[in-house]
Write a structure and sequence with these properties.
The structure is a homodimer. Chain A is 38% helix and 15% strand. The first copy, chain A, is of the alpha/beta class.
């Protein structure tokens, strides 16, 4: 049984993994719950509670062995191997991702597609933009790949339909507009406009 | 008293507002709870419950007047007027935002700053990149502005410290690494890497 079953816990574990990855890269061997709490936006008590699912780790005062804890968290999250990313959209945002990658995530963009034939053949990062018709040629299909939508505003539903039509069941949508997918498809978003709304609300609440 | 007090409700109201904005732009006068539910990732029952706080609206069967409901939601969210955005970072992601704006959000980037003097003076969208030292010259200070961090990986804490130092209390961080801010500052994130982790977890859970 996977003990990390709520989205809130999974999200925090993802934060801890990112923080631990940076610590390991900096040569830090042992981290405390306080070390993880602040940057991950939680309390040290909450860190200890979350990490108590890992048994041995989490003894008060002794600190966590960073590298071992990172490996265990990645196993619980099921992210020891990250799936390749297939990017739909070779406009400004799409190209920024193809060129810059996903910082800190350990994910790699495998291919970039666009419905616009004027963009196909152009470079995007180290890749060449291909037409979405060529999604049919992806070896092994899209089921074990994550599709990222970063298309012209108003075209996200079309991009989602294309991905789902080619068997993709895991989609990250960077467009802001509403998108519907079948029930067996997981669609997540990074919602810049909604985060700005929540910041504005908090700003007004402070007055 | 503001009846929309939980983050989950605020988030859904933000989604409804975006969906209603598109409907109004498309000339649609009346929307049903079903119309809002699918694209906003919730159920029509949940839509009706959320919108019941608006009293008159939400009568079963009659539909909601799109424009009036949109105005009411914006008032409850406190987003009838959106604060200007101050962008820190004129790299790929920062320039993409300065050029493309925030789709669907009604937010405008007012100024772009970078700590790198090689980037200051360059165009970014219709703006000119300024050095972060010039944040001191922003009329009225940063308290009523939202700061967006889109800097080189590893430099987000520095950018946050600069914003906070100039009085900013509302920050959206697009970088992935952990960032600490004082308690009276609201920091939100769009977490591409974490969303990918959660998609990967769901993908593995399906197997």
């Amino acid at each position: 049984m996977n003990p990390a079953n709520s989205e809130a816990v999974l999200r925090r574990l993802s934060h801890y993994a990112r923080c631990l990855g940076l610590a390991v890269a900096d040569g830090i061997d042992t981290v405390t719950s306080e070390y993880l709490a602040g940057p991950c936006g939680t309390t040290s008590a909450s860190v200890r509670k979350d990490l108590s699912i890992f048994g041995e780790f989490g003894k008060r005062g002794s600190g966590y062995p960073a590298r071992d804890l990172l490996r265990e968290i990645r196993e619980v999250l099921g992210i020891t191997e990250t799936p390749p990313l297939v990017l739909i959209g070779a406009g400004r945002v799409g190209r920024a991702i193809a060129e810059g990658g996903i910082p800190g995530g350990g994910y790699t963009v495998e291919a970039v597609f666009d419905t616009d034939r004027e963009l196909t053949g152009l470079p995007a990062g180290g890749l060449i933009v291909r037409h979405t018709d060529e999604l049919a040629g992806m070896e092994g299909g899209l089921e074990d790949r994550i599709g990222i939508i970063a298309v012209t505003p108003g075209r996200a539903q079309e991009a989602a339909d294309i991905l789902v039509g080619f068997g993709c069941r895991s989609i990250l949508c960077l467009n802001m507009e509403p998108v519907s997918v079948p029930e067996d498809v997981t669609l997540r978003r990074t919602e810049m406009a909604t985060e700005l709304d929540l910041l504005t609300h908090a700003m007004n609440s402070r007055r």
